[in-house]
Write a structure and sequence with these properties.
The protein contains eight helices and 14 strands. It has helices at about 50-60, 100-110, 115-200, 210-240, 250-265, 290-305, 335-340, 365-375, and strands at about 10-15, 20-25, 45, 65-75, 75-85, 90-95, 245-250, 270-275, 280-285, 310-320, 320-330, 375-385, 385-395, 400. Helix 6 packs antiparallel against helix 8.
Amino acid sequence: MNREQNYKGCAFTCDIFGSITEVITNSIPFKVALERGKNISHIFSSIFSGTPLTLILEAKSQGIIVDYPLQAEVTNGVQQLSFIAIAMSNSILVVGADNQREAVEFCNHLQEINNEQTNYIRLISKEILAKREKQNETEALLNKLTLLNNDLINLQRELTKKNMELERLNEMKNRFLGMAAHDLRNPLGVIQTYAMFIEEEAANVLTTRQREFLGIISQTSSFMLHLVEDLLDFSKIEAGEISLNQSHFSISASIARWVEIQNTLAKRKGISITLKTPKKEYFITADESKIEQVFVNLISNAVKFSYPQNSIEVLLSAKKGMVVVTVKDNGIGISKENMEKLFKPFQRIEYLGTMGEKGSGLGLSIVKRIVEGHKGTITVVSELGKGSAFSFSIPLNKEVN
């Protein structure tokens, strides 16, 4: 048996119309003879979307086609073949075998035949192998990218589910906070009212111990009522239910009135509040009760964290179309660690007021939402041990001399 018989395949040349111009070698028993003058469309048929003539045209345009599947009728049925097509100067060299690997090996075997096609085969044999390796590497990379993409899609799907669940839980949390705060507000108000009534009306008949207990009840109920009010405000803001009843008013007059009221409360701690405002009168369009809530919160915090027998400054000014209200104290100040927590909900600072006062951890987060709802900003400058200055700005309507 000679060496050529160890390789099973076919090799021939044809023109761009598919007509066979030369049969180089053939060891496949085709039913229709593979011979010069025959058109390859009479011998081979497509397996998928390609056709024999498409193989020729693609080889002509691309220079080389590897692993192109075609079928052929043989003496004992139908055989599937893998073809390599190579564009030469005046013709197309076509090599076929059972599969791509054997087709490449058959090309290498053809190099041993001394004819004009051998040089073409020898020159591009390395190119075939390189293209095949590159194709394998590309396919491996695509497979890896596909797996990574599938993982990413799965992660995105899971993240979407988690986000939807978090939104649902957050909505339930806000609803629960609102319901709980609403149900607690009335009984706490009753407790505070009756404690104040007893403290005023029955002070002469109470012992020192009883008055002490009554003061604890009054202070605790007051703190809890403020906490409940903050929870109600926060749950409404989070649910998007809070509305602004805006009106045109003089913030200069409002600030003066609010300072006077807060001064009375601050005197209980021996603290005085002074107002510095220009002669000009500033007007804004806003929800006056909400702006008052912002101011009262800042004043309350300043009193809470100021030492007795100290002072607080309130400054009113205008800058770049905004009216600016600043509340400045000389209290305990805020550390850098706590500065990052100030405007986040449920984030309490690490220390109490100068007389043990507590906070809800919601006040400043509510203040920030209200100010931003009025298209304003709130800032703070503070140094531990030296005091703090909170400023909020609201768009200014006009000034009146």
